[in-house]
Amino acid sequence: MSQLHLFILNPAAGKHDQTGELTRAIRKLFESDPVLQGAPYEIAVTRGEGDATVIAELKILEHPEGIRIYACGGDGTLNEVVCAAAEKENASVCPVPVGSGNDFIKYFEEIPRTRFLDLRSCALGEAIPCDLMKVAGRYCLNIASVGLDAITAARQQKVKRIPMVSGSFAYKIALFYSFLSAMKNPIRLEVDGEEAAVGNGNVAIAAAGNGRFYGGGFKATPTANISDGCIDFIAIPTISRFKFLKYVRDYQKGLHMESMKDFLFYRRCKRVRMLSPKPLVVQADGEIFHLKDPEITVVPGALNLILPVAQDTLDT
């Protein structure tokens, strides 16, 4: 039996609900394409948080012969599908970036976003092994972090509940307050079981990367590799706010590994543990957790990741 093509659509992703147009495009592809016509496919629409994981888990169990799952949404939808497909040999996952952020696919700088949006390119794509990270027992595909950025993301969720405050404005408000209060986080590091010193023991931002981009395009871990079996871990010690602002643009562009090398902590490792006197706010693929002494580990080759085929392949 052929592998099932399962499309999981998140109607809340992006600026408007794209369920209708995606459904029409999927049906047309599998009903008229000379290569894909007749292949088994299903479309499922999520109704709330966690739905994508539940749907994917059920279908993976129903199709031991193989299933290709297309996560049609943002990084949150992709993470939910990944959590279901992780370490499952019969399951492969392809991101279809119709959300607002879609930071993970920016890792593939040689593949334009339009190709990930081309359903035929995705349906004909092949899977490659991709590492994952684990944070408090939950899989993380892209980046997990603590400090200023994680605290800002947590505050944004609260500020968004205020009437008439939009997502982008909520982020700016949250960032302003975090910048005033969240630059000094007492953290001791254990990297691969050994203690490591960062500055005077206070950290502004610490990020563990499997992917490279997060936070709407910040290239936090520019040398990360999704198939090297390692975590790329960086930590920026607490510095003056003026000095921090000086380096923000470099951090966004991924140039901080050079410009901040005199005080930036960097390790390629298998495991990192962050010890703190109180629970830390942790961001993992956009999800927020409050964890005491969080530990992040790598799970090599845990995901079968589908990449869209190149245009010249489609034309042959």
Q: What spatial form do the alpha-carbon principal axes imply? A: globular
Ends: how far apart? 26 Å
Any idea of the CATH topology of the largest domain? Tumour Suppressor Smad4
Q: How many DSSP-defined strands?
A: 19
Determine the mean pLDDT.
92
The number of distinct structural domains comes to 2
CATH architecture classification name of the largest domain? Sandwich
Structural class: alpha+beta
Largest sheet: 7 strands, antiparallel
Oligomer: single chain
Topology as a string of helices (H) and strands (E): EHEHEHEHHEEEHHEEEEEEEHHEEEEEH
Classified by CATH, the class of the largest domain is Mainly Beta
Walk me through what this model shows:
- The longest helix has 15 residues.
- This protein starts with a strand and ends with a helix.
- The chain is 30% helix and 33% strand.
- It is built from ten helices and 19 strands.
- It is an alpha+beta fold.
- The mean pLDDT is 92.
- The protein folds into two domains: 121 residues, Rossmann fold (3-Layer(aba) Sandwich), CATH 3.40.50; 158 residues, Tumour Suppressor Smad4, CATH 2.60.200.
- 42% of the residues are buried.
- Helix 2 packs parallel to helix 3 and helix 6 packs across helix 7.
- Strands 7, 8, 11, 14, 15, 17 and 18 form a seven-stranded antiparallel β-sheet that branches. A six-stranded antiparallel β-sheet has the order 6-5-19-16-9-10, with helices on one face.
